Amino acid sequence: MANQQENEVEEVVQEVTVLPAPAGRPRKKLIIGASLALLLLGGGGFAGYTLLGGGEDAAEASVEEVATFVDVPPLTVNLRAPDGAPRFLRVHLMLVPSSEELAEEITGKLPLIIDAYQPFLRELRPEDLAGSAAAFRLKEEMLVRANATVGPGSVTDVLIQDLVQQ
């Protein structure tokens, strides 16, 4: 009985190995085609979900989360130029408080925040403001100084409204 089963297994193996390769597309093209179809279906589903209003709750929640901003008056400062030529920086910022209650406190302490910003901005050189990372570094420094003045975690972000170097 075991011998008969072994013979049947050998016959099946021989049939499988003798079968010719399937004609048509190679396996790699089939995998790529299936992946593209899956990607298109997923993208279409996501687009339909967002266009038909499935993502409204998340958008409304983010708008309601922070509805207040504190406007910092535009600041104009001299820059340290290595050649001694007069160079100026004009920057207009907005502060994002961590809560609406803190907006009034931040507004009350705005002269102190501006006083903390002035020395830092005056020490900048024109080279410090070059490149794409300059705005990020400036925002981070302004955020650190605002939180040091008002209190840790009081300001969650600094928005640059205007940044002009002359």
CATH topology term of the largest domain: Tetrahydropterin Synthase, Chain A
What is the domain tally?
2
Q: What CATH architecture of the largest domain would you give?
A: 2-Layer Sandwich
CATH class descriptor of the largest domain: Alpha Beta
The gross shape turns out to be: elongated
N- and C-termini, Cα separation: 96 Å
Task: List the keywords.
18% strand, elongated, 166 residues, alpha+beta, Tetrahydropterin Synthase, Chain A, three-stranded antiparallel β-sheet, 2 domains
Can you put this structure into words, describing what you see?
By secondary structure, the protein is an alpha+beta fold. It folds into two domains: 19-65; 66-165, Tetrahydropterin Synthase, Chain A. 55% of the residues lie in helices and 18% in strands. The chain has six helices and three strands, in the order αααββαααβ. It has helices at 2-18, 27-51, 56-65, 100-108, 110-122, 133-150; strands at residues 70-78, 88-97, 155-165. Strands 1-2-3 form a three-stranded antiparallel sheet. It starts with a helix and ends with a strand.
